[in-house]
Amino acid sequence: MAEIGVLRSMHSASPERRSEKAKEELERARVAQRTNTGLQVVKSPTGVDRHTALFMDDKDRFKTDAAADLREMEIQRKIKREQMLEKKRAEHIAREEKRWNEVDEEHQRKAVQADAMLSRNKAKTNKSSVPYNPISGAYNDDADGMRLKYHDDVLKYRAQVRQVTLHTMMNRNFTNPITGASVTPMSKPPAPERPTLPSSDGKTYFERK
Fold first, then answer.
1. Contact 147, 154 (CB under 8 A)
2. Residues 158, 163, 164, 166: what is their CA dihedral angle, to the nearest 10 degrees?
3. In angstroms, how far is the first alpha carbon of the chain from the final one?
């Protein structure tokens, strides 16, 4: 029984403490009974009245659907990635269009410059003095090229005629004097055809020559 009395004495408040607590309760009650003072007694300093705009229930304050949050984060991540790719694609298209526009402008500028050079006499200094391509040997497709081709064909024709004449004179009997074998006579090649090159006076180049 003595132990029980000791425990009760340990947990019991002193008269001073009881008097202070009673004083606090009395002051709180007096403040609550006051009217037109502009004061409001708040039961909990961290609590919010249910009827105010600041109030929010605990079930609304904390999110409980974690799967929906993860799905929303994934959707936002995909949208952000698509926007970034679309921005890069637009920048690449604009850059390529600018580059090709610059290429076209440079090509047109060079074409105008080339035409201007051809219209001046300075460009004739690079013109070949012969009417054929000195690299491939092909004749030019113009009057000078046709004229040169005819002259070359005439030279070849005269060489072939000279060859036939010498062969005929050396083998009049068409028999080889050493072996006695018969020799086949050579035929005369056809003469080259003169090209028609009309001029301002109505005569061809060869007629005027």
1. no
2. 120
3. 161
What one-letter code names the amino acid at 82? E
Q: Where are the alpha helices (DSSP H) in the chain?
A: 2-11, 15-33, 58-61, 66-119, 143-170, 205-208
d(CA 206, CA 209): 5
| CA separation for the pair 68, 63 (Å, rounded) | 10
User: With contact defined as beta carbons under 8 Å apart, do 86 and 78 qualify?
Assistant: no
- Is pTM beyond 0.85? Reply is no
**Per-residue model confidence as pLDDT tens digits over 123-133:** 566 677 788 88
pLDDT tens across 63-79, in order? 777 788 889 999 999 99
Using DSSP, state whether 149 is helix, strand or coil. Answer: helix
Beta bridge partners of 139: 132
Neighbour tally for 160: CB within 10 Å? 15
Side-chain half-sphere exposure of 113, counting CA atoms within 13 A? 6
Q: Which residues of 96-111 are buried (b: 16+ CB within 10 A; e: fewer)?
A: eeeeeeeeeeeeeeee
DSSP state letters, 64-81 = --HHHHHHHHHHHHHHHH
Rounded distance between C-alpha atoms, residue 21 and residue 54, angstroms:
32
Which backbone phi and psi does 63 adopt, to 5 degrees?
-80, 135
